[in-house]
Amino acid sequence: MKRTRPSEIKRLLAAEDIIPSRVLGQNFLVDENILNIILDSAHLAEDDVVLEVGPGLGVLTEHLIPRAHRVIAIEKDPRLAAYLREQFGAQPTLHLIEGDALDQNLAMMLKNEHVTHVISNLPYSSGTRILLELIDAEDRPLRMIVMLQTDVAERLAAGHGSKAYGVSSIHAQMYYDVVLRKTVSPSCFYPPPDVRSAIVEFYRRSEPQIVLRDTAHFNGLVKWCFSQRRKQVGRLLLNAPAAVVPADRDVPAVLEQAKVRPDQRPESIPVTAWGELSNRLCAR
């Protein structure tokens, strides 16, 4: 069957007695052009290992299996997992996990399975959390090609100085070059979602933008400052909790050393400067 043909998808769902769940963000891709953009962007080689979260009816899975050395697919919905086992269970290169991706130890999975790529139409409800967990992992994938809500995609790809620039931008861009490849109309899915989507490409940097002394401190610093993003960074640091700015730190001196003006607002500070600030604040 052709999984990008809406009429066939409707018949299939009816035959399997599956009603797409809005809670689970089940909007199935039915546009072949968008499918091909995702597959072409992946540049898969025969020794690559792919993680797919939320395979749904297998529109991507079907094309990933012959292109990759191994495909690990995580499907939360038992009905869809049963369908995928029926359709692709005989494929020795597919490892299907029935369960919630948020309940898996994704960092350990990336390491043990030697995952090189993440290629997914991510669930709207949990896509950001899954993606940030993958970015945080020690064995980060070389490449990630994912579909997300447009507003989430814009935040991830935004540069400093943009209103969309924030915690997730800095988090992702510390380790990846992030490109918003294409916005995708709701009509490319069945059923059509209430929001527009976008394909986002992540290309892992050979090294992070700056080597961090303490990743937890860096994340806490950025989160604190962007929680009050309209304030000036000098004031934010002077009023920060001790976990962010230890009591013995000379905030004006630290800002000067990091080449950050005290009157700058968080959205104007580039990723490397955030890293430099963190390193100087938590230096012993």
Question: How would you explain this protein's 3D organization?
Answer:
The chain is of the alpha/beta class and 284 residues long. The chain has 2 domains: 6-204, Vaccinia Virus protein VP39 (Rossmann fold), CATH 3.40.50.150; 215-281, rRNA adenine dimethylase, C-terminal domain (Helicase, Ruva Protein, domain 3). The protein has 12 helices and 9 strands. The chain has helices at residues 6-15, 32-42, 61-64, 78-88, 106-113, 127-136, 150-157, 167-173, 215-226, 233-238, 251-257, 271-281, and strands at residues 28-29, 49-53, 70-75, 94-98, 117-121, 143-149, 176-184, 189-190, 197-204. Helix 3 (61-64) links the parallel strand 2 (49-53) and strand 3 (70-75). The longest helix is centred in the last third of the chain and has 12 residues, at 215-226. The chain starts with 5 loop residues before the first helix and ends with a helix.
